[in-house]
Amino acid sequence: MQAGLEAIGVAVPDTYVELADLAMARGVAPGKYVEGLGVTRMGVPLVDEDTVTLASRAARMALESAGCSPEDVGLLVVGTETAVDHSKPVASYVQGLLGLSTRCRIFETKHACYGGTAALQLALDWVRSGSAKGRKALIVCSDIARYGVGTPGEPTQGAGAVAMLVSDTPALLALEAGKTGVYSKDVMDFWRPLYSKDALVDGHYSVQCYLDALEGAYRAYQEAAAEPVGEGAYSDRFAALVYHVPYGKMSRKAHRHLRTLDGDAAPDASFDRLVGNSLVLPSQVGNIYTGSMYLALASLLSTAPQDLTGQRVGLFSYGSGSCAEFFSGVVQAGAQERVKALGLEARLSRRRALSIPEYEDVMRAREHLDERPVADAAGSGFRYQGTRDHKRIYAT
Ligand code: CAA
Q: What value of ipTM does the predicted structure carry?
Protein backbone atom coordinates (compact mmCIF):
# COMPACT_ATOMS: atom_id res chain seq x y z
CA MET A 1 0.00 0.00 0.00
CA GLN A 2 1.21 3.52 -0.83
CA ALA A 3 1.64 6.01 1.99
CA GLY A 4 2.89 9.55 2.15
CA LEU A 5 1.98 13.21 2.26
CA GLU A 6 -1.43 14.15 0.92
CA ALA A 7 -1.27 17.81 1.94
CA ILE A 8 0.89 20.23 3.87
CA GLY A 9 0.22 23.39 5.88
CA VAL A 10 2.63 26.00 7.22
CA ALA A 11 2.23 28.64 9.94
CA VAL A 12 4.78 31.25 10.96
CA PRO A 13 4.51 34.25 13.30
CA ASP A 14 3.21 37.54 11.86
CA THR A 15 6.41 39.29 12.94
CA TYR A 16 10.12 38.83 12.25
CA VAL A 17 13.55 40.33 12.84
CA GLU A 18 15.85 41.32 10.01
CA LEU A 19 19.19 39.56 10.65
CA ALA A 20 21.19 42.49 9.31
CA ASP A 21 19.54 44.71 12.00
CA LEU A 22 20.32 42.15 14.70
CA ALA A 23 23.95 41.93 13.58
CA MET A 24 24.38 45.70 13.78
CA ALA A 25 22.80 45.80 17.24
CA ARG A 26 25.25 43.11 18.40
CA GLY A 27 28.29 44.81 16.84
CA VAL A 28 28.74 42.02 14.29
CA ALA A 29 29.25 42.42 10.52
CA PRO A 30 25.83 41.74 8.86
CA GLY A 31 27.63 39.43 6.41
CA LYS A 32 28.30 36.98 9.25
CA TYR A 33 24.60 36.32 9.83
CA VAL A 34 23.28 36.77 6.28
CA GLU A 35 26.03 35.05 4.26
CA GLY A 36 27.99 33.33 7.06
CA LEU A 37 24.92 31.59 8.53
CA GLY A 38 22.67 31.89 5.49
CA VAL A 39 19.69 33.48 7.26
CA THR A 40 17.99 36.73 6.18
CA ARG A 41 15.05 36.93 8.61
CA MET A 42 13.90 35.00 11.67
CA GLY A 43 10.31 34.65 12.80
CA VAL A 44 9.61 36.03 16.30
CA PRO A 45 6.24 35.20 17.87
CA LEU A 46 4.35 37.83 19.88
CA VAL A 47 2.81 36.95 23.23
CA ASP A 48 -0.47 35.66 21.77
CA GLU A 49 1.34 32.96 19.80
CA ASP A 50 2.70 29.64 21.10
CA THR A 51 3.29 26.07 19.96
CA VAL A 52 -0.44 25.35 20.12
CA THR A 53 -1.54 28.31 17.99
CA LEU A 54 1.15 27.70 15.37
CA ALA A 55 0.31 23.98 15.23
CA SER A 56 -3.42 24.68 14.91
CA ARG A 57 -3.00 27.19 12.12
CA ALA A 58 -0.71 24.87 10.15
CA ALA A 59 -3.06 21.92 10.68
CA ARG A 60 -6.08 23.91 9.50
CA MET A 61 -4.21 24.85 6.32
CA ALA A 62 -3.32 21.20 5.63
CA LEU A 63 -6.91 20.03 6.14
CA GLU A 64 -8.34 22.83 3.99
CA SER A 65 -5.78 22.24 1.27
CA ALA A 66 -6.87 18.59 1.02
CA GLY A 67 -10.58 19.38 1.42
CA CYS A 68 -10.49 16.96 4.36
CA SER A 69 -13.03 16.95 7.18
CA PRO A 70 -11.89 16.74 10.84
CA GLU A 71 -13.88 13.49 11.04
CA ASP A 72 -11.46 11.86 8.56
CA VAL A 73 -8.49 12.19 10.96
CA GLY A 74 -7.85 9.07 13.03
CA LEU A 75 -4.40 9.96 14.39
CA LEU A 76 -3.02 13.32 15.48
CA VAL A 77 0.57 13.60 16.70
CA VAL A 78 2.37 16.84 17.46
CA GLY A 79 6.16 16.65 17.45
CA THR A 80 7.63 19.44 19.53
CA GLU A 81 10.47 20.38 21.84
CA THR A 82 8.56 23.48 23.00
CA ALA A 83 5.85 21.79 25.06
CA VAL A 84 3.41 24.00 26.97
CA ASP A 85 2.78 21.48 29.76
CA HIS A 86 4.58 18.51 31.34
CA SER A 87 1.46 16.36 30.99
CA LYS A 88 -1.20 17.70 28.66
CA PRO A 89 0.03 17.38 25.06
CA VAL A 90 -0.08 20.22 22.55
CA ALA A 91 -2.06 17.77 20.42
CA SER A 92 -5.02 17.86 22.86
CA TYR A 93 -5.34 21.62 22.48
CA VAL A 94 -5.10 21.24 18.71
CA GLN A 95 -7.80 18.58 18.78
CA GLY A 96 -10.08 20.98 20.65
CA LEU A 97 -9.35 23.99 18.46
CA LEU A 98 -9.86 22.05 15.22
CA GLY A 99 -12.82 20.05 16.44
CA LEU A 100 -11.29 16.65 15.69
CA SER A 101 -13.22 13.49 16.45
CA THR A 102 -13.25 11.91 19.90
CA ARG A 103 -12.28 8.69 18.08
CA CYS A 104 -8.93 10.18 17.11
CA ARG A 105 -5.77 8.86 18.84
CA ILE A 106 -3.72 11.88 19.94
CA PHE A 107 -0.39 12.45 21.62
CA GLU A 108 2.88 14.39 21.53
CA THR A 109 6.37 13.19 20.60
CA LYS A 110 9.73 14.58 21.67
CA HIS A 111 13.19 14.05 20.39
CA ALA A 112 14.58 17.54 19.71
CA CYS A 113 14.18 18.36 15.99
CA TYR A 114 13.60 14.67 15.15
CA GLY A 115 10.29 14.45 17.09
CA GLY A 116 8.14 15.20 14.02
CA THR A 117 9.96 12.65 11.88
CA ALA A 118 9.44 9.99 14.56
CA ALA A 119 5.71 10.79 14.42
CA LEU A 120 5.69 10.75 10.61
CA GLN A 121 7.34 7.32 10.43
CA LEU A 122 4.83 5.97 12.92
CA ALA A 123 1.95 7.40 10.87
CA LEU A 124 3.31 5.85 7.67
CA ASP A 125 3.44 2.44 9.35
CA TRP A 126 -0.11 2.95 10.68
CA VAL A 127 -1.33 3.61 7.14
CA ARG A 128 0.69 0.79 5.53
CA SER A 129 -0.37 -1.78 8.10
CA GLY A 130 -4.03 -1.21 7.30
CA SER A 131 -4.82 -0.08 10.85
CA ALA A 132 -5.84 3.34 9.53
CA LYS A 133 -8.83 1.77 7.71
CA GLY A 134 -8.97 4.68 5.26
CA ARG A 135 -8.56 7.38 7.88
CA LYS A 136 -5.78 9.93 7.72
CA ALA A 137 -3.05 10.96 10.14
CA LEU A 138 -2.30 14.56 10.93
CA ILE A 139 1.35 15.04 11.90
CA VAL A 140 2.28 18.50 13.12
CA CYS A 141 5.78 19.80 13.85
CA SER A 142 5.58 22.98 15.94
CA ASP A 143 8.33 24.85 17.78
CA ILE A 144 9.73 28.13 18.95
CA ALA A 145 13.54 28.15 18.71
CA ARG A 146 14.95 30.25 21.50
CA TYR A 147 18.52 30.99 22.56
CA GLY A 148 19.71 33.66 24.99
CA VAL A 149 19.90 37.26 23.81
CA GLY A 150 23.51 38.02 22.84
CA THR A 151 24.59 34.35 22.61
CA PRO A 152 26.06 32.80 19.40
CA GLY A 153 22.79 30.91 18.93
CA GLU A 154 20.68 34.10 18.92
CA PRO A 155 20.76 34.59 15.12
CA THR A 156 19.63 30.97 14.62
CA GLN A 157 16.23 31.39 16.29
CA GLY A 158 12.86 31.20 14.53
CA ALA A 159 9.34 29.87 15.05
CA GLY A 160 6.77 28.03 13.06
CA ALA A 161 4.82 24.88 12.41
CA VAL A 162 4.40 22.49 9.51
CA ALA A 163 1.43 20.12 9.38
CA MET A 164 1.29 17.06 7.15
CA LEU A 165 -1.73 15.02 6.24
CA VAL A 166 -0.54 11.42 5.85
CA SER A 167 -2.64 8.89 3.98
CA ASP A 168 -2.80 6.14 1.37
CA THR A 169 -3.52 8.78 -1.29
CA PRO A 170 -0.28 10.78 -1.12
CA ALA A 171 -1.01 13.58 -3.59
CA LEU A 172 2.27 15.37 -2.77
CA LEU A 173 4.97 12.86 -1.89
CA ALA A 174 4.83 9.04 -1.77
CA LEU A 175 7.37 7.95 0.83
CA GLU A 176 9.33 4.85 -0.13
CA ALA A 177 8.65 1.94 2.21
CA GLY A 178 11.77 0.36 3.69
CA LYS A 179 14.07 3.02 2.24
CA THR A 180 15.18 4.66 5.42
CA GLY A 181 18.41 4.75 7.40
CA VAL A 182 18.64 5.69 11.08
CA TYR A 183 21.59 6.85 13.17
CA SER A 184 21.29 7.57 16.90
CA LYS A 185 23.88 8.35 19.55
CA ASP A 186 23.79 9.76 23.09
CA VAL A 187 25.53 13.14 22.73
CA MET A 188 25.27 16.45 24.58
CA ASP A 189 25.25 18.89 21.68
CA PHE A 190 22.03 20.84 22.26
CA TRP A 191 19.45 20.62 25.04
CA ARG A 192 16.70 22.60 26.81
CA PRO A 193 16.90 22.03 30.57
CA LEU A 194 13.57 22.04 32.42
CA TYR A 195 14.59 25.17 34.36
CA SER A 196 15.33 27.24 31.25
CA LYS A 197 13.21 28.69 28.45
CA ASP A 198 16.34 29.11 26.34
CA ALA A 199 18.14 26.25 24.64
CA LEU A 200 21.74 25.49 25.63
CA VAL A 201 24.10 24.42 22.92
CA ASP A 202 27.71 23.46 22.32
CA GLY A 203 27.49 25.16 18.92
CA HIS A 204 30.50 23.94 16.94
CA TYR A 205 30.24 20.47 18.48
CA SER A 206 26.57 20.35 17.43
CA VAL A 207 27.62 20.94 13.83
CA GLN A 208 30.02 17.99 14.03
CA CYS A 209 27.33 15.78 15.64
CA TYR A 210 24.94 16.70 12.81
CA LEU A 211 27.54 15.74 10.18
CA ASP A 212 28.40 12.45 11.94
CA ALA A 213 24.70 11.60 12.08
CA LEU A 214 24.25 12.46 8.40
CA GLU A 215 27.07 10.09 7.49
CA GLY A 216 25.65 7.29 9.66
CA ALA A 217 22.08 7.69 8.41
CA TYR A 218 23.12 8.01 4.75
CA ARG A 219 25.19 4.82 4.94
CA ALA A 220 22.32 3.01 6.67
CA TYR A 221 19.93 4.24 3.94
CA GLN A 222 22.21 2.89 1.21
CA GLU A 223 22.29 -0.51 2.89
CA ALA A 224 18.51 -0.57 3.39
CA ALA A 225 17.75 0.58 -0.16
CA ALA A 226 20.09 -2.14 -1.53
CA GLU A 227 19.99 -0.65 -5.01
CA PRO A 228 22.38 -1.87 -7.70
CA VAL A 229 25.70 -0.04 -7.79
CA GLY A 230 25.55 2.62 -10.50
CA GLU A 231 27.78 5.11 -12.23
CA GLY A 232 28.52 8.50 -10.65
CA ALA A 233 27.61 9.96 -7.26
CA TYR A 234 25.01 8.01 -5.28
CA SER A 235 23.13 11.20 -4.41
CA ASP A 236 22.57 11.92 -8.11
CA ARG A 237 19.79 9.32 -7.78
CA PHE A 238 17.81 12.14 -6.17
CA ALA A 239 16.43 15.17 -8.04
CA ALA A 240 16.74 17.16 -4.80
CA LEU A 241 18.09 16.77 -1.28
CA VAL A 242 16.29 18.31 1.67
CA TYR A 243 18.33 18.61 4.87
CA HIS A 244 17.33 19.68 8.37
CA VAL A 245 17.99 23.46 8.30
CA PRO A 246 18.95 25.03 11.63
CA TYR A 247 20.42 27.76 9.40
CA GLY A 248 21.09 27.74 5.66
CA LYS A 249 24.86 27.31 5.93
CA MET A 250 24.33 24.01 7.81
CA SER A 251 22.63 22.58 4.72
CA ARG A 252 25.62 23.67 2.65
CA LYS A 253 28.00 21.96 5.09
CA ALA A 254 25.77 18.85 5.06
CA HIS A 255 25.71 18.70 1.29
CA ARG A 256 29.47 19.15 1.04
CA HIS A 257 29.93 16.26 3.47
CA LEU A 258 27.47 13.99 1.69
CA ARG A 259 29.00 14.61 -1.73
CA THR A 260 32.47 13.99 -0.30
CA LEU A 261 31.18 10.64 0.99
CA ASP A 262 29.99 10.03 -2.58
CA GLY A 263 33.54 10.57 -3.79
CA ASP A 264 32.72 13.86 -5.54
CA ALA A 265 35.93 15.88 -6.00
CA ALA A 266 33.91 19.13 -6.37
CA PRO A 267 31.36 18.63 -3.57
CA ASP A 268 29.89 22.16 -3.73
CA ALA A 269 29.24 22.12 -7.47
CA SER A 270 25.82 20.45 -7.19
CA PHE A 271 24.57 22.59 -4.27
CA ASP A 272 22.35 25.02 -6.21
CA ARG A 273 20.89 22.23 -8.34
CA LEU A 274 20.12 19.77 -5.56
CA VAL A 275 19.60 21.95 -2.49
CA GLY A 276 19.09 25.64 -3.42
CA ASN A 277 15.29 25.67 -3.77
CA SER A 278 14.77 24.04 -0.38
CA LEU A 279 16.36 27.03 1.37
CA VAL A 280 14.20 29.86 -0.01
CA LEU A 281 11.55 29.72 2.74
CA PRO A 282 13.84 28.68 5.63
CA SER A 283 16.12 31.68 4.97
CA GLN A 284 13.09 33.92 5.69
CA VAL A 285 11.93 32.09 8.84
CA GLY A 286 14.99 30.73 10.66
CA ASN A 287 15.12 27.51 12.63
CA ILE A 288 11.75 25.99 13.48
CA TYR A 289 13.31 22.85 15.00
CA THR A 290 10.94 19.89 14.31
CA GLY A 291 9.42 21.59 11.27
CA SER A 292 12.67 22.83 9.68
CA MET A 293 13.19 19.99 7.23
CA TYR A 294 9.50 20.00 6.28
CA LEU A 295 9.55 23.76 5.68
CA ALA A 296 12.51 23.08 3.40
CA LEU A 297 10.44 20.43 1.58
CA ALA A 298 7.58 22.94 1.18
CA SER A 299 10.14 25.42 -0.12
CA LEU A 300 11.40 22.93 -2.70
CA LEU A 301 7.89 22.09 -3.92
CA SER A 302 6.77 25.71 -4.11
CA THR A 303 9.89 27.29 -5.64
CA ALA A 304 11.57 24.68 -7.88
CA PRO A 305 11.22 25.87 -11.49
CA GLN A 306 11.60 22.38 -12.97
CA ASP A 307 8.89 19.70 -13.03
CA LEU A 308 9.72 17.20 -10.28
CA THR A 309 6.90 14.78 -11.07
CA GLY A 310 8.04 11.18 -10.64
CA GLN A 311 11.41 12.31 -9.29
CA ARG A 312 12.95 11.14 -6.02
CA VAL A 313 13.75 13.46 -3.17
CA GLY A 314 16.15 12.53 -0.33
CA LEU A 315 15.26 13.81 3.14
CA PHE A 316 17.58 14.12 6.14
CA SER A 317 16.11 14.78 9.58
CA TYR A 318 18.39 15.47 12.57
CA GLY A 319 17.45 15.78 16.22
CA SER A 320 20.12 16.70 18.75
CA GLY A 321 20.80 14.33 21.54
CA SER A 322 20.67 12.54 19.00
CA CYS A 323 18.59 10.67 16.43
CA ALA A 324 18.69 11.15 12.67
CA GLU A 325 17.03 9.56 9.67
CA PHE A 326 17.67 9.65 5.93
CA PHE A 327 14.65 8.61 3.85
CA SER A 328 13.16 9.27 0.45
CA GLY A 329 9.98 9.93 -1.45
CA VAL A 330 8.67 10.36 -4.98
CA VAL A 331 7.00 13.64 -6.02
CA GLN A 332 3.47 13.12 -7.34
CA ALA A 333 1.82 14.76 -10.37
CA GLY A 334 0.31 18.14 -9.45
CA ALA A 335 2.19 18.32 -6.12
CA GLN A 336 4.08 21.50 -7.00
CA GLU A 337 0.91 23.28 -8.12
CA ARG A 338 -0.85 22.28 -4.88
CA VAL A 339 1.94 23.63 -2.69
CA LYS A 340 2.34 26.78 -4.82
CA ALA A 341 -1.39 27.42 -4.35
CA LEU A 342 -0.77 27.86 -0.61
CA GLY A 343 0.96 31.15 -1.46
CA LEU A 344 3.65 30.65 1.17
CA GLU A 345 6.09 33.24 -0.20
CA ALA A 346 3.32 35.86 -0.38
CA ARG A 347 2.32 35.08 3.20
CA LEU A 348 5.90 35.61 4.37
CA SER A 349 6.07 38.95 2.57
CA ARG A 350 3.02 40.20 4.52
CA ARG A 351 4.74 39.88 7.93
CA ARG A 352 5.77 42.92 9.98
CA ALA A 353 9.40 43.67 10.89
CA LEU A 354 10.20 44.24 14.58
CA SER A 355 12.87 46.74 15.59
CA ILE A 356 15.57 45.28 17.85
CA PRO A 357 14.20 47.04 20.99
CA GLU A 358 10.71 45.67 20.15
CA TYR A 359 12.18 42.17 19.70
CA GLU A 360 14.02 42.39 23.02
CA ASP A 361 10.78 43.49 24.74
CA VAL A 362 8.99 40.48 23.23
CA MET A 363 11.76 38.15 24.44
CA ARG A 364 11.42 39.52 27.98
CA ALA A 365 7.60 39.29 27.90
CA ARG A 366 7.76 35.69 26.68
CA GLU A 367 9.67 34.73 29.87
CA HIS A 368 6.37 35.00 31.77
CA LEU A 369 4.01 33.85 29.06
CA ASP A 370 2.84 30.73 30.86
CA GLU A 371 1.46 32.71 33.83
CA ARG A 372 0.18 35.68 31.81
CA PRO A 373 -3.37 36.59 32.95
CA VAL A 374 -6.06 36.30 30.30
CA ALA A 375 -6.03 39.42 28.14
CA ASP A 376 -9.32 41.35 27.85
CA ALA A 377 -9.05 42.25 24.18
CA ALA A 378 -8.46 38.72 23.00
CA GLY A 379 -7.90 38.19 19.28
CA SER A 380 -9.45 35.46 17.20
CA GLY A 381 -8.07 32.77 14.92
CA PHE A 382 -6.16 30.47 17.28
CA ARG A 383 -4.54 32.95 19.65
CA TYR A 384 -3.17 32.34 23.15
CA GLN A 385 -5.17 34.59 25.47
CA GLY A 386 -3.43 33.82 28.75
CA THR A 387 -3.76 31.53 31.72
CA ARG A 388 -6.65 31.43 34.21
CA ASP A 389 -6.84 29.03 37.18
CA HIS A 390 -3.61 27.44 35.85
CA LYS A 391 -5.38 26.60 32.56
CA ARG A 392 -4.27 27.94 29.19
CA ILE A 393 -7.05 29.69 27.29
CA TYR A 394 -7.15 30.00 23.50
CA ALA A 395 -9.28 32.10 21.17
CA THR A 396 -10.79 30.18 18.29
N1 CAA B 1 30.89 37.63 6.20
C2 CAA B 1 30.58 36.38 5.76
N3 CAA B 1 30.75 35.26 6.53
C4 CAA B 1 31.24 35.44 7.78
C5 CAA B 1 31.58 36.70 8.29
C6 CAA B 1 31.38 37.84 7.45
N7 CAA B 1 31.65 39.07 7.87
N8 CAA B 1 32.04 36.53 9.55
C9 CAA B 1 31.97 35.20 9.83
N10 CAA B 1 31.50 34.54 8.76
C11 CAA B 1 31.23 33.11 8.63
C12 CAA B 1 32.25 32.20 9.25
O13 CAA B 1 33.37 32.01 8.40
C14 CAA B 1 31.45 30.93 9.47
O15 CAA B 1 31.34 30.23 8.26
P16 CAA B 1 31.79 28.67 8.19
O17 CAA B 1 30.94 27.93 9.18
O18 CAA B 1 31.55 28.29 6.79
O19 CAA B 1 33.24 28.65 8.58
C20 CAA B 1 30.04 31.45 9.79
O21 CAA B 1 30.05 32.83 9.40
C22 CAA B 1 29.68 31.38 11.27
O23 CAA B 1 30.74 31.91 12.00
P24 CAA B 1 31.19 31.28 13.39
O25 CAA B 1 31.35 29.80 13.27
O26 CAA B 1 32.35 32.06 13.90
O27 CAA B 1 29.89 31.61 14.25
P28 CAA B 1 29.63 31.41 15.78
O29 CAA B 1 30.78 30.78 16.46
O30 CAA B 1 29.14 32.70 16.31
O31 CAA B 1 28.41 30.38 15.85
C32 CAA B 1 26.93 28.59 15.42
C33 CAA B 1 27.82 29.67 14.80
C34 CAA B 1 27.77 27.56 16.13
C35 CAA B 1 26.14 27.91 14.30
C36 CAA B 1 25.93 29.26 16.41
O37 CAA B 1 25.10 30.16 15.74
C38 CAA B 1 25.09 28.28 17.19
O39 CAA B 1 25.52 27.74 18.21
N40 CAA B 1 23.83 28.00 16.72
C41 CAA B 1 22.92 27.08 17.36
C42 CAA B 1 23.32 25.62 17.19
C43 CAA B 1 23.00 25.05 15.84
O44 CAA B 1 22.16 25.54 15.10
N45 CAA B 1 23.67 23.93 15.49
C46 CAA B 1 23.44 23.26 14.23
C47 CAA B 1 23.66 21.76 14.34
S48 CAA B 1 22.60 21.08 15.62
C49 CAA B 1 21.05 21.01 14.89
O50 CAA B 1 20.91 21.11 13.71
C51 CAA B 1 19.85 20.87 15.79
C52 CAA B 1 19.17 22.18 15.89
O53 CAA B 1 18.26 22.48 15.11
C54 CAA B 1 19.62 23.11 16.93
A: 0.98
